[in-house]
Amino acid sequence: MLKLIIDIFLTFLRIGAFTFGGGYAMIPFIQTEIIDIHKWLTPQEFIDIIAIAEMTPGPIAVNSSTFAGYKIAGFWGSLAGTLGVILVCTILSALAGKYFFKFKDNRLLKALFKGIRPTVIVLIGSSVFSVGKVALLDIKSIGIAIVIFAALLKFKLHPILAVALSGIMGVMLFS
Amino acid sequence: MGKLFELFMVFFKIGAFTIGGGYAMVPLIQEEICSRKKWSSDEEFLDIIAIAQSLPGVLAVNTASILGYKLFGIPGVLAAVLGAVLPSFVIILVIAVFFAQFAKYKATELIFRGVRPAVASLMAFAVIKLGKKVGISGFNIAMGLLATVLLIFKLHPIIIITASGIIGIITEYWGGRSNAETDN
Predict the structure, then answer these.
(1) pTM
(2) Whether the Cβ atoms of residue A123 and residue B151 lie closer than 8 Å to each other
(3) Which of A98, A145, A171 lies closest to B120 in CB terms?
(4) Domain spans of chain A, in order of start
(5) Residue B56: strand, helix, or coil
(6) What does R_g of chain A's alpha carbons equal in angstroms?
(7) Partners of residue A20 on adjacent β-strands
């Protein structure tokens, strides 16, 4: 049992350490490790896990690691999966943050980020399109998007309220 | 300890109410960290996202770790990352133990169909807010257009971020005049 838990931890450590871009970029990697190499889960189980990871709050990569870990070895498996997937990136990010905040007034670093900022806005903007493509499917969903956008603009609606409100609208409009 | 708990709670909220992963957490972090707590400026937040995106792993966890370090060093990293991950862990565990059919419930599907369009609106709104902060200069528009073209050609985000950083440095040192100082 302990060997299995360590195995799960090391597998998710690898997944967390080598995928760039989080969430969706991680799914094929998790699939290869969990289904093809270790045969810990069936493809159908894996599809169910991804569906739930997408529908529940929180990072998709963390959700799917927790869930997969649980399916493989119960509570300790889920703990091993979660810790494994976040450990390397937490340490690397803290190190990167340390040097960034130390040198951020440096002319070179300032110039670097001056070039990068518009790009980050474009990257976030492009993900608006990819979310929009799967979210705005009919008049009702477009209506929800418009109402929420108007409320953000007009009343500075808090994001948490926006999520709660839209969930209620979903139940009212689609049932 | 009070401040650490506050940091933990902010990321706990972010972890508990972000649906969709990746950049979907941007609006909530921007609202909580930049607008309300004023722990970071909008510009610095964009820099942090660029760093988080350029490292392996989970975007929300990377962002939590960088901001946590900025505010309170290593204890800050632990508080922020734990806050960001704990809601996921608990919610998934509860679902795995009690509601294995979660994704197949009618109510879940209805809520999810309502929330997804709102996530698109929230993200669009955050893009506008951050875009205003960065400012509409000739340089920024040119960089934005270049990034858009590179994205259309399906270049990896890390390559696009690296390329735009190099261009930022080249334009800064071209002719020796300090753009980073004067344009901001």
Answers:
(1) 0.86
(2) yes
(3) A145
(4) 2-103, 114-174
(5) strand
(6) 20
(7) B56
